[in-house]
Amino acid sequence: MQIIEITQEKTNMAILKHIASKNADYGEAERYLIFQHDEYTQKPILDENGNMLLREEYYLDGINCDPFTFDVECLETNAFFNKNQSFNEIKSHHYIISFDPKDQEEHGLTGEQAQKLGIEYAKENFPGHQALVCTHTDGHNGSGNIHVHIVINSVRKYDSDSQPYMEFDRDSKAGYKHHLSDRYRIYLKQKVMDMCHSNGLSQVNLLTSAERKISEKEYWAKRRGQKNLNEHNAELKKKGLSPRQTTFQTEKQYLREAIDAVASLATSQEEFSRLLSDRYNITFKISRGRYSYLHPNRQKYITGRNLGTLYEETHLLQIFQENSNRQPSEKLHLTDRSITDISKPSIPVQTNETTRSFLFMKSDLQLVTDLQHCIKAQQNQAYAQKVKLSNLKMMAQTVAYVQEHGFQTKADLDTALFNAQARSTDARNILKSTEDALKNINEQIHYTGQYLANKNIYADYRKSRNKSKFHEAHRAELTIYESALRILKEKSNGKKLPTLKMLQEEKKRLIKLQISQREKFDTFRQYKQKLRTVCSNVETILHQSHIEKSLRENSQEPFLL
Predict the structure, then answer these.
(1) Residue 209, pLDDT score
(2) Among 187-191, 350-354, 437-441, the least confident range
(3) 372 phi and psi, to 5 degrees?
(4) φ, ψ for residue 428, nearest 5 deg
(5) Is the dihedral of CA 310, 315, 316, 319 positive or negative?
(6) Which residues pair with 446 in a beta bridge?
(7) What are phi and psi of 23, to 5 degrees?
(8) Cβ contacts of residue 1 below 8 Å, gap of 6+?
């Protein structure tokens, strides 16, 4: 079972951490808690004789078991209830309670006290389970914070009293598995906060989502990536070369920084999406109200929720509104066209640049992978060899593409990319105008329906002798009628209101036009992305040629990209 500790910086420290393991070797958990392990590889640290080294300070206790026979007793419990016999079953759950580093100096927290708190927490919140409770005082990466590990067997050994967080009766019965529901998770976090409060320790609101959410996986990817990058740059400096990059950046961090930069400029979702695509080659989409982002080197979207609250809809819409209010409008705002004037075009006339014939053929051309900063390739030689072969293929395709399209210089490519971006932007603006017109039509259809549905009631109201009494009895219908009529008159600029049939015919026309324009926009956008990939690959090839030239001048062997 691989167990990883993590302490985030400042107030974003991971106060409560949960890890589920399918490893059937319960003894590995005990060895991790007792013996020193390398923070990067998670492998035991050995002395000169090959023996594992005990941690300098730790406190270990067992609940419903002897701590030094935890592994055997868990296996016995599993066998008795015939559970945890298959590979895919979760065998154990590991919880980590990490206290603020300043609790030691400011509040007098000791390892003994933390161990006592951990035992009380485990007994109260994991009743009936066999558990190891172990406190470390060294912290992660020399941070010095005290933290408590609680490792429980996933199978409950004894019956327990029913608790508020339990959803089913079996959650308190012996022989059933640990069920970590959302309600249970919130309950555990609240108990940590209550424990800190009652003991005068520093608190972090665990029930509030992080503005910038750094997962355990991302944290370690950055740590290992920076370490490998530093080693690689040191080798480059020895060869007389200047490193291209000194700070390792995860894919999620690339997205965060790009979104931060674009959000400070954008005044709408559409502008936000365009800037992300044009400046950072990031694809933005909205699905069921969720914001998601596609990194240029990924095929799977990352949700804003996984990046932090600053990258979700609520926060970003607020930023867009603030930008819109702060900045003077520089865009041309088209007044709503009267729906009665159906003969006039509702969409701007397309320019010759966008209407001329255009043919784009899809291909499997992809970005060349930079092996210097690919952590997976550095850790796996087989994968690195696969990437090298793929890079050679992509380089060959890139060169063929340049030759086939008659690009003579890098400037020719840049010009083509600039023109492609302009075409894509024009097509997107035209599509946006159609979508706005369609939205306006749908609104008029909606209000026309309300107007017609309550028209007779309004007529009866006009005929009634006691209008006050009639209005009171039909207040809702008359309010809807008057509101719909007012909005329709505003949209028609005082002209005769269109019929429902006219509106529906216009809607059909706009939908057909929207489909055609979307296809054209998608074609331009794909062509733009393809040129961007070609330009990036060409820059990589040119940079590689420069490195190889420098290496030859220094009588060094070149290396593959």
Answers:
(1) 60
(2) 350-354
(3) -65, -30
(4) -65, -40
(5) negative
(6) none
(7) -75, 125
(8) 21, 23, 25, 26, 28, 29, 32, 91, 92, 94
Question: Got the DSSP string for 63-76?
Answer: ESS-GGGHHHHHHH
Which residue matches tokens 């302490």? 7
* Sheet strands side by side (includes 302-303): 283-287, 290-294, 302-303
Q: Taking the complete model, does pTM exceed 0.85, yes or no?
A: no
- Percent of residues, the chain, with pLDDT higher than 70: 81
pLDDT-derived band at 327, boundaries 50, 70, 90: low
- Tokens representing 334 are 């088209």
Poorest-pLDDT segment among 3-12, 144-153, 215-224, 440-449: 3-12
pLDDT tens sequence across 363-388: 556 666 665 556 666 667 777 777 77
User: Which residues are paired to 283 by β-bridges?
Assistant: 294
Q: In the predicted model, what is the mean pLDDT of residues 446-458? A: 89
Q: What whole-number distance in Å separates Cα of residue 248 and Cα of residue 255?
A: 14
Burial string for 389-419 (b: 16+ CB within 10 Å, else e) reads eebeebbebbeebbeeeebeeeeebeebbee
Taking residues 207-219, report their average pLDDT: 69
Which is more confident, 546 or 476?
476
At 324, give phi and psi (nearest 5°): -65, -40
Beta-sheet strands, E only, within 195-306: 283-287, 290-294, 302-303
Residue the block writes with tokens 């036009």:
513
pLDDT of 440 higher than 50: yes
Mean pLDDT (the chain) is 80
Q: Does residue 133 register a pLDDT over 50?
A: yes
- Distance (Å, rounded) from C-alpha 383 to C-alpha 539? 23
Domain map (residue ranges) of the chain:
10-207, 217-331, 371-448+489-553
CATH classification for the domain delimited by 10-207, as one of 3.40.50.12780, 3.30.930.30, 3.90.1150.10, 3.30.420.130 = 3.30.930.30
> Under a CB-based contact definition with an 8 Å cutoff, are residues 532 and 417 in contact?
yes
Q: Which two tokens stand for residue 282?
A: 């990031």
pLDDT greater than 70 at residue 89: yes
**Angle at CA of residue 83, ends 78 and 87, nearest 5°:** 105
Sign of CA dihedral 14, 104, 60, 117: negative
Dist CA 317 CA 323 (whole Å): 10
**Which distant-in-sequence residues (6+ apart) come within 8 Å of 547 by Cβ?**
241, 558
Q: Pull the structure tokens for residue 481.
A: 């009628």
CB count within 10 Å of CB 549 equals 11
Tens digits of residue pLDDT in 95-123? 999 888 888 888 888 999 999 999 999 99
Kindly tell me the sign of the dihedral angle through the C-alpha atoms of 135, 140, 142, 145: negative
> 3-class SS at 329?
coil
> Is the pLDDT reported for residue 34 higher than 50?
yes
Query: At residue 505, what are phi and psi to the nearest 5 degrees?
Result: -65, -40
Per-residue tokens: 151:
């490792």
Residue 134 CA, chain-centre distance (Å), reads 33
Which is nearest to 539 in space by CA: 418, 299, 370, 416? 370
pLDDT higher than 60, residue 341: no
Distances (CA, A) of 277 to 270, 281, 455, 527: 11, 4, 48, 13
